[in-house]
Structure of JmjC domain-containing protein:
Amino acid sequence: MLSNYTPLVDLDWKDFNPWAVTPVTHRVADDPRFRIEQLVELAKRLDSKGRIRAHTNSAEAATSFANAPELHPINDDPVRTIEHIQAAKAWMSLLNVQTDPIYRELVDEVLDSVRPNVELKDPGMSYRGGWIFVSSPRTVTPFHIDKEHNFILQIKGQKTVYVWEPDDLRVVSERARDNFHSRHDRELIRWREEFREMAHCFKLGPGQGAYMPSTSPHLVEVGDEPSITVSFTYYTDSTRRDSLIHKVRGRLAEMGINIAPSLGARVFDEALYFGARAARTATRISYRATGRRIGEETAAYARAEGA
Ligand SMILES: [Fe+2]
C-alpha cells in the first residue's frame, strides 16, 4: 500500500497550472504491481475482457493512432507477447486497469495522493483511469490527443515523450479538436516531422514523468530496452467544459455554422457552454426516466467498453 498522505507525484504544486505541460518525478517505480510477473497475470485477466491493445514496431509517428492495431497487428497471443516483450517487437497497452480490483487500488492510491493539490486549481476530479504500457525496444505510440488529463510515469527502461501544449494550434487545429470531441474523430490530427522542434521533449527514465493536460498532442518513442510506463488519467470540471464547447462547435460546423476563434468567439463559447449544459441535463433526466444508459463523465471511474 502506497502512502495516502504524501503526493506520490512531485511537481511545484504551488505553481501548478492544470492546462500547462509540466515535468514531474514520482515514487511508484518500485511498486511490486509493476513487476512483469504481476503484469502478465493482469494481462490474463484483461485479455479475457478484450482490454489489451497492441501493434508491432512497424507503426510510426504518422500511423493512425485509432487504426494502428489493425494496420500493424501482432502475430502472437497478447499474454505470450508480454511474457516475451524483449524480443516481441510489440507495443502493448493494458487498458482501463481501474476495472481490475488490484489495480483500482493503485489508481486510487496515486490519484488520491495528488487530489488535494489538483483540486485547489482544477476541481471536479472524476472518471479516473489507469493504463499500463509494456513495450519492446524501438516501438512508437503514434501522434494523437486524448480527452483526459494525464500523469504519465516511467517505471522501467527509457522513453522519449514529445508533447505540445493543449492550445498549440500549429500542431492540432481548432477544427481537428472540434471533430475529436464531437465525433471522436482523429482524422484531422496529422503528424508532420517539423512538429518535433516545437515540442517539449522529455527523456524519461524510472522515477520521471510528465503531466499532460487534456488534448495535449503527444508522441512517444521507446529506447533500446523494454519499457514499462503507467498513465493515471481523469476528467475535471474544466476538461468537461472544454470538451462540451468543442463538441457543440463541431456539431455547428457540420451544419455549416463556423465560429472563428477570437475574443468574440470566447464570449460566444460561454453562452454555448451554459446552453449546452442545460440541454444535456434535460437529456439525462429523460434518459434516466426511461431507464436508458448514459455515458456519465462525472462517474468516479472511467467506464470500459462492456463494463
Ligand atoms: Fe495518449
